[in-house]
Amino acid sequence: MGKDLEKRILFVTPESFEPSGGIKQLYRMVDVLNNLGYKAFILHKNNGYRHTWFQNKTPILYNFKILKPLDTLYDSPKMSFSGIIRHFLKNLFANKKSSKIYKDDIIVFPEFYGMHINEILIDNPKVIYVQGCYLTFSNHPLNKNLIHTPYLKESTIGILINSDDGINYFKNVFPKKKVYKVRHAIELDKFSPSTKKKQLAFMSRKNFKDIRQVLGNLYLKKLLDDWSLIDIQNLNHDEVAAILSESTVFLSSGIDEGFGLPALEALASGCLVIGYTGKGGDEYFNTKLSIKIPEKDVQEFIKVTEEKIIFLNNNLNWIDQYANEVREHINERYSLEIEQQDIKTAWSAISQYQLIKKKLF
Question: What is this structure's pTM?
Answer without folding.
Answer: 0.89
